[in-house]
Amino acid sequence: MSTRDLSRADLHTLAAAAGVMVDWVDASDQPRQVSEQSLHAVLTALELPAATATQREDSLRRCKAQAIEPAPLLTVQVAALLPVSVAPDASGRWVDDSGASEQARADAQGQVRAPQRFGYWTLQIGGLTQQVAVAPQRCFSVADACGLPAPRAWGMALQVYSARSIDDGGIGDASGTVEWVRHAALAGADALALSPVHASRPVTSGYSPYSPSDRRFLDPLHAAPVRVLGELALDAINEVPGLRERFDTLHHSALIDWPASAQAKWQLLRHLYTRVAADHADLVAFRSEGGAALEGFARFAAQDFGDGDPQLHVFTQWLAARSWSDAQREAHERGMKIGLIADLAVGFDPNGAEAAAAADTVLRGLVLGAPPDAFNADGQHWGIGAYSPTALRRSGYAPYIALLRAVLRDRGGIRIDHILGLLRLWVVPEGASSNEGAYLAYPLHDLLNLLALESWRHRAIVIGEDLGVVPPGIREELSRRGVMGIDVLMFTRDDNGAFVSPTLWRPDAVATTTTHDLPTLTGWREGRDIDWRRKLELIKPAQASDDVTARSKDLARLDAAVEHAGLSAANDPLLGALRFTATSVSPLALLPVEDALALEEQPNLPGTVEVHPNWRRRLPDPLPHARLSTALQGFAEARRVAAVSEPHP
C-alpha cells in the first residue's frame, strides 16, 4: 500500500471515529464519497487536525479517549439494563427528581436494571453515582391524547405570520391564531399545527422562521398584547403618535413588510413596557421561573436590539408566553384534544442568543446545509448552526433537554423539522460550498429517549418531518419510538407514478395535502410552482415544458384515484383531493389553511431569497368563508366516514 493510500486510510479511520460519514447515498440512490479535502476541512473545524500522520494519530487518540469518558447522563428505556457494571448483588437506591426513591439491586453479573417508571433518576449503588434518564418505549401518541385505540383525528396547519386579526400591525400573532382555533374547533378539529414562533434577531431585511436567534424563547412579534393586557393594550396603540395609522396600513397589506411591521410592533411593545408595573405579580413570577436562562437571553437581546434594557425583553417574553398559553387554553376549552402543535426549527443563527448561551456545545466553523440532489446541483447552504454531538453528550444533553422543555411548554404537540437531524446533519465548513460538506452523526438513541421522555412529561405528540432521502431502517425506528412521519398527497405514489389509496398510507404518519415548501393544491394544479421556477430561471424553458406535460399526467392520475375512491366532488377537484387525503389511515390528518382557502401561492419557494415573497404572504381579507366552510365540512366528514367504515381488529 502506497504512502498516499495509508494516509487516506488513516484519514477515513479518523473520520469514522469522529462521526464524520465518509460514504453516503445521494437522492438518486447513488453511492458517494466525501473528498479528502472536505474531510480535512470538516475535521479541522471539529478541532481534529489531520494534515500529517502525527496529527491524525493524536486526533484519533483524542476521539478514542472521548468515546470512553464517563457519560454525565445515561439514557435507557424503562426496565432496561444499564451500560454500567458494579459488584454482583450490590444494593443501593434510585432517587427521582422529586426526591422519591426505590431500591436498586445488581444481579449476579453486576448489572443493574432501570426502574419501571420513566423520569430523571440518580442511581446510587456500590460507590457509583450516575444520572439516568429513564424513557418510555415510545412518545405520547394521538391515541393517548384522544383516548381512543385507533383515532382518526384531524386538524389544520397555519403559517402564524399569515393570520389576520385586529391590531396585529401587519404580522400574524396569537390573536389571529385563536381565530383559526375557533374555525377548526367548530368543525370538529383536534389540532392546529403552527409555523415556528422562535425568538428572532432584529429584522432588517428578509425573514425566515427557520433561522431563529433562540429556539428556547418566543418571538414577541407574534405576541397578542390585547389578549394579555386587555384595554391597556388597546389604549396604548392610540397613545403613541401615528402608531394607529401605521398599524392599520400594515394590517391591510397583502404582503408583510417585515422591517416596517417589526418596527411598529416593537414601538408598541416598548410603550407597553412603560405602562406595566415592574412588580406586576405574574411578570415577577415569570421572571423568577425563567431564571438564569431568561436573564441571559434578555441581556443578549438588549445588546442585539440596541436598547440596552434586558428587563424590556423579559417583559416581551412574558407577553409572548402568556399569549400562547392563553391560545392553548382556548383550544382545549373549545374541545381540541391536542390543541397547538409547535414547530421546532433544525438549527439557529450562529450569531444569535442560543449559540451564545450554549457556546461550549455549539459547532464552531461549521454550518448546516443539504448535499447536492436533483433539484440543487450544488446542495443547499442553510447558514444555521447546531450543537456538537460530542459536546452534547459531555454536557449531559442539557441544552437539548432545555430546548425540548421550552418548545413543548403550553403545547399539545411538536413537529420537528428535518427529524433526520437526530441521526445526522450535513455540515459545511464556513466559507465553503455546500457540496464540500459531509454528514456528521448524532446520538439517535439518546436523543430519541429524551424526546420520548419529555413528550410524556408534557403529554405532547411528536411529528418528525421525514421527507426526502431516509437511510434504511430509520423510518421503522422512528415509528417504533412513536415519532410520526409525514405523508404528503403529491408524494404518495407507487413505482408507476399512480397515486396510492389513502387506506394504504402509513398508519404511523401524519397525512397532509402539502407543506410550506411545496405548492398548494390549487397552485400545483395550475402549475404555479413551475411558472415561478421558469420566471426566476431556476429551470430552463425546455425543462419547464417537460414539467408542464408531466404535471398534466399527474393531475389525471390524481383525479382518477379520487374518482376510484368515490370521493369526487362535482366541478371541484380540489375538494375531492381534500376528501381523498382525509380518508388516510393516519391517526392525524392536517389540512393546511392555504388549501382550505384554495389559495394559489405557496408560503416559501426553496432555493430563493428575495426574488420570491417567502414568509410574507398574508391570508385574504376578508376570508372566503363559503369556500372555507365547504373545505372544513368536506374534510371533517370524510375523516369521520373513514373512521366508521374502517375495519377494526
From TrEMBL:
Tell me the InterPro entries matching this sequence: GH (IPR017853), Glyco_hydro_77 (IPR003385)
**What is the uppermost EC class here?**
transferase
Q: What is its EC number?
A: 2.4.1.25
Q: What is the name attached to this protein's record?
A: 4-alpha-glucanotransferase
* Catalytic activity line of the entry: Transfers a segment of a (1->4)-alpha-D-glucan to a new position in an acceptor, which may be glucose or a (1->4)-alpha-D-glucan
PANTHER family, sorted: 4-ALPHA-GLUCANOTRANSFERASE DPE1, CHLOROPLASTIC/AMYLOPLASTIC, 4-ALPHA-GLUCANOTRANSFERASE DPE1, CHLOROPLASTIC_AMYLOPLASTIC
Q: Which UniProt keywords apply?
A: Carbohydrate metabolism, Glycosyltransferase, Transferase
Q: Does the keyword Transferase apply?
A: yes
Q: Which domain of life is it from?
A: Bacteria
Keyword Transferase (UniProt): yes
**One Gene Ontology term of the molecular function aspect:** 4-alpha-glucanotransferase activity
Regarding protein family, the annotation reads: Belongs to the disproportionating enzyme family.
A Pfam family of this chain: Glyco_hydro_77
The biological process GO terms on file are: carbohydrate metabolic process
